[in-house]
Fold this sequence. Notes:
Distance between the termini: 69 Å
CATH class of the largest domain: Mainly Alpha
CATH architecture of the largest domain: Orthogonal Bundle
Strand content: under 5%
Amino acid sequence: MYKSAERMYQYLIENHSDSDYIPGAFLGLQKIQYSTGNYKKCIEFYIRVAENYDKSSAMAGAHYYSGMSFYHSEEFDAAINSFSKINKKSEYYDYGLYTTALSFLKKKDMKKAVQVFRAVLSLPVVNKERQDIIRTTHLTLGYLYYELGYYQQAIKHYAKIPVHDGTYPEALLASAWAFIKLNDYQQAIISLNELVKRTDDPKYNEEAHFLLGQCYTELEFFDFAIQEYNYIIKRYPNTDNIEKRIATVTTALEKQEKLAEALRVKLIILESDLIHTIPVDDRSEVPLYLKKEQDRVEKTQDNLAQKILDERLVFDDLQWEMAKLREEIYVKQNRRHWRAYSEYGKARAYFLKTIP
């Protein structure tokens, strides 16, 4: 899919060099190189855009993708420099600022990282995208403070995640860990009970019940602790059953990947067909037959574009299904650990219960 898009951009650059769309085409090529992990090539395209089209509206995106390429190449100073050039009114500004903070983290400059994260939090909420990145920043700062041992500050940031947000369960679990570090088991239990009440997602549920067992044990509520450990032991199968289920899910994933590959090839063919319907620049010499059949060409282009869009939606659905299957494999592989931990926790709770 990227190859066909790359050919389309190259076609525009090679055949319509005077077009106003050339900076956008270079940005498109830059995005493709970044998406495929070719960070060196992405930076090369950035240099070409910066040298020839520095006043173009495409520059904000060019700065962003070059910054991300530098970031993933672990050239953090260069990344920070690229992000700093993004206009504050650009759609890329928020993400550039957030990744600037991450770059300072990678440089182990905690003070500047926190300053930049706070700058993100100070941005006025003007759209959903900014709201999302502010929530992500609260979660990131929470984890940062947790790792630094500032558990109260971590809890304050976790508390900023709204109930309806997709990361709310993650914030509840992280809060519980912070409360446990503070030996505040009662508050940890409140967070964990809220978590298990709100979601049955095994990504959080198993760990939450295990932590509840630990908290109840610390408070000497051994019967409650045993109940939590039993929940995990009864709900999640033993190792033999897990291996069979993992094999089943892995087989399903392989089938989905084959379907995705077939659909990817179909998309390449469609996008190759679309290349031939790209309208030539009015300033170029236009063949007479294209003038006469302009309506037909435009209609064909629209139909192909819609067909590609429909196929891409199917492709995205397949990709999402495969991601879910991979996550399911990961969860099932880790269940064996929670079961083992719970069996140990249960035995420990029984032992402590017998001590006068």
